[in-house]
Amino acid sequence: MEKEMVIRSRQHGFTKGKSCLTDLTAFCGGMAGWGEEGRAVGVVCLDLSKAFDTVSHNILTVLQKGSGEEHGVLILFVILTFPRGSFSCSGLHQISQNKVAVLLLAGGQGTRLGVSYPKGMYNVGLPSGKTLYQIQAERIRKVEQLAGQRHHCKCAVPWYIMTSEFTLGPTEEFFVEHNYFNLDRSNVVMFEQRMLPAVTFDGKAILEEKGKIAMAPDGNGGLYRALVDNKILDDMKRRGIQYVHVYCVDNILVKMADPVFIGFCVSKGADCGAKPQCAIQALPSEELGCFAVAASTDTHQDMTFLGLQGKYEPQLRHHVAIKKVPYIDEEGNLVKPLKPNGIKLEKFVFDVFQFSKNFVAFEVLREEEFSPLKNADTADKDTPTTARQALLAQHYRWALRAGATFLDENGCRIPEKLSLSGTEDPPAVCEISPLVSYFGEGLEVHMKNKDFPSPFVLDENKAGILGNS
To answer: Which end of the chain is more exposed for a tag (fewer CB within 10 A), N or C?
Structure first.
């Protein structure tokens, strides 16, 4: 074949004296040479765990030349794709051992959303009518079930909820009203963060009513002091918790106690980790930060790291947040400003990352794991509509992958559409209960080669019927 020039010299597979290893070596060498010459070099991703599992990963490094930026060269990155299945197994094992807890940051007010109650109580308009709190509670129940089934045991993931003066009472009442969403009450622990005065732009105190200064939560970075103030660290140690998944209440796609993320952090010996998103659909102007954690506080922190933050927390600086702060005017009337009129001082939960001894980042797809609810529907992004679209688009993709088809009101098949923009409704409306599937797993038995109307809600009852049909 070589004599007849059927295979070119650049072909390494099925060629004597060559292999996948020589192919990679030649490829990387060529790309490095182009970079040194100032030529344009693309970004290449190699799935080494599948295609080149016999290659030593140590020989592959990021090629970074000092002259790259001067010549406008895009540096080549060789990205190792790790087998996530092994991380999931490790994470589920930690959960089965009762070593994992989730910690919800829910002290902020829903002023931008335009509601007076905690965001977790908000219903974004799903067919089921579920609130954020219910969705998150059911994800905890499901991941407990997955870990218990895999390791033949009963386990629990404690849910710590950091509230504030504004959100503690309503949150407690909401959970009691809904019977803690069938979670064990002893495993749901609520506590308050501290409050700080809100001030005008010239530093004067703002009165929210006669004789009372306007106060605001000290930001999600107030977590570390609140853990000590409320003896939450002591409670975690008593339960044997070793790993804590910290997240914000407003992310409708959050994977509670994500076993893949936890397994990854444990395998790397990380004391702290974060989930940056591959922000394919992010707006160009969106400030995602170095690891995208400015938009998402989805982090992993082990107990050793959390315990040290009482020492480091005083070193954190406050950030200025420009807000609309209701106030009492000179006549004693309550005024709700239409534009920002004051400053709230906040600390951020990720400000402590600088103190980590072994920090890791675990990149995830934005459309699968991050869609925040921050603004009313009058805004351009992060609204109830975009949050609902993100969840329903995700569930629609899960259903298609499971082999489902959808029919319109006339019984005609609805054409499939796998690629959806961040502001687009899926062709068919399908909501899947977290109690049926945590992250798209196990749906084939319920949905493969079956037709469903739109809208359709797959809950536990329907799943039981479909599984037996």
So the answer is: C
285: left (phi over 0), alpha (psi -120 to 50) or beta: alpha
**Which range of residues forms the domain containing residue 54?**
20-80
pLDDT of residue 468: 74
Q: Domain end: 32, 53, 80, which one?
A: 80
More confident residue, 257 or 51: 257
Same domain, 352 and 245: yes
* Whether residue 315 has pLDDT greater than 60: yes
Are residue 168 and residue 288 in the same domain, yes or no? yes
Residue 5 lies in a domain: no
- For the stretch 378-390, pLDDT in tens is 999 999 999 999 9
In sequence order, which residues have a C-beta less than 8 Å from that of residue 80 and are 6 or more positions away?
46, 48, 49, 57, 60
Query: Is 321 in contact with 345 (CB distance < 8 Å)?
Result: yes
Q: Terminus-to-terminus CA distance in the chain, angstroms?
A: 55
Question: Do 110 and 206 have their domain in common?
Answer: yes
